Amino acid sequence: MSAGRVSEGAGCITWWGFSPARNLLSPEKSEGEINVLLVGSGDPRHILKTIADSSAKQKLHIWVMEQSMEVVARQLLLLYITLIPKETMGINEKTEVFLELFGNAEIRSQTEETLRQAASQLILSVTETVEDAMHACLNTTFLKFKERDELARIFKLWIQQISSSGSSPVVMSKAWDYRVRQHLGTRYDSRKGCFDWDLKMKLHEKGCGVISTKQYMQWREKGLAFEMREGVYQRTNPTLVSTRVFNHKGDKVGFQGYWGDIVSSPYLSFGIETDDESLLRTQNRQHVKTAQDISCSNMQGLFQSLSSRGRCLTTAHSDAEKTPKLNLMQLSGVSVTFLPLDSLQKLPLKQKYCHYFNTIYFSANCVHQLGPMMRQIAAPDAVLVVELAKYILDLNKRQEAGFVEKVASLALEAGFEPWREHAADDVYAVFVPQKK
């Protein structure tokens, strides 16, 4: 989305994905080291789902490439919270904190304190000059020095906004309302009807009936998606603040605000699919449970699965020369590495990545970067997964169908063909390398 089109509901920065979490491992590849490349996923939903569903014996390396350092900072924060040992933070509390930071424009003061502690630790992890990462799942050593400096600046900015006695430079309620006004224009005064139309005629028609009217309307009005306990949600969530550059009288000017999705909702990532059929039960054609309930259940399940795979890291070695470590769970055989923003064009030029990745994932807003060079870094048995535009609500049915055709065309040009064994899906397109 260009900075000149402030009416776009999807925004210009991807704080969460426009599709549910998926296990990205191919069932045909179950042994040896598995390398997964994520391009523009926006949040760690696929990372968590893939790790949780993989065998504890599998060696899994996930490589992450994003479009902005603000999104990288958020990914690192959410992974950090995921890795807090249950002895330090129980699974229920972790679920609440995670979802609050994930999908709420405003948060509670208790959540702010967790954010402050996490940001302080993450500053240490990105400014450490040693070659080895301080944690295998928070590896930023491949980033450029200027990118790591930018991450440190973002983390410090979060802490400063928390420490300013509630007076954030960005008042999130005003920033959110500005986006809603720009998006709806003359329809702003009848916004509740617009919100209801998007929910009933779009999301519910697309199979998202578990998104309740009350919760969706509250999110569209205030940016508050997850309200799970009594508390005051009035402190700006600094992790959803970013800078957007506009042209103003011939000059480029940066404005801080909320520039993410205000239409599709953060419920899509963890809240519309579940293996627990009881959570999808309906009564009088109404869902008994909500997308918030499903999000909580899914996150608790993911955290429980990761806890059983993880072991708490102890600092038994007193050797001062040892790399300082973060007091987080270590997930056996799993590593997550963040790559520089401009890596996609450079990976095919490095011998290490020749036919290297077993799974390559592209988000809908990064699909334009899918090109022939992908064939060079894809393993012979690789799977290419592309997010489609089903849940980008500003698109009509014709545009959505055109997007599907465009994805198929780009994949074909890149040397991939549809995976016939994969069941048809209107959320993700799945491809495999063409047979020579």
Concise structural overview:
The protein is of the alpha/beta class.
3D structure, described in words:
- The chain has 436 residues and is α/β, with parallel strands linked by helices.
- It has helices at 45-53, 69-82, 91-103, 109-127, 145-163, 172-184, 191-203, 213-222, 267-270, 291-309, 373-377, 397-413, and strands at residues 33-39, 59-65, 106-107, 235-236, 242-248, 251-257, 282-283, 286-287, 310-312, 329-331, 334-338, 357-362, 378-387, 416-418, 428-433.
- The strands form 5 sheets. A 7-stranded mixed beta sheet has the order 11-2-1-12-13-15-14. Strands 3-4 form a two-stranded antiparallel ribbon.
- Helix 1 packs across helix 10, helix 2 (69-82) runs antiparallel to helix 3 and helix 2 (69-82) crosses helix 4 (109-127).
Strand tally: 15
Tally of helical segments: 12
Radius of gyration: 21 Å
Number of domains: 2
The best one-word shape is globular
Family: Belongs to the DNAAF3 family.
GO biological process, one term: motile cilium assembly
Pfam family, one: DUF4471
Protein name: Dynein axonemal assembly factor 3
What is the topological layout?
Layout: E1 33-39, H1 45-53, E2 59-65, H2 69-82, H3 91-103, E3 106-107, H4 109-127, H5 145-163, H6 172-184, H7 191-203, H8 213-222, E4 235-236, E5 242-248, E6 251-257, H9 267-270, E7 282-283, E8 286-287, H10 291-309, E9 310-312, E10 329-331, E11 334-338, E12 357-362, H11 373-377, E13 378-387, H12 397-413, E14 416-418, E15 428-433
Parallel strand pairs: 1-2, 1-12, 2-11, 12-13
Antiparallel strand pairs: 3-4, 5-6, 7-8, 9-10, 13-15, 14-15
Helix pairs in contact: 1-10, 2-3, 2-4, 2-5, 3-10, 4-5, 7-8
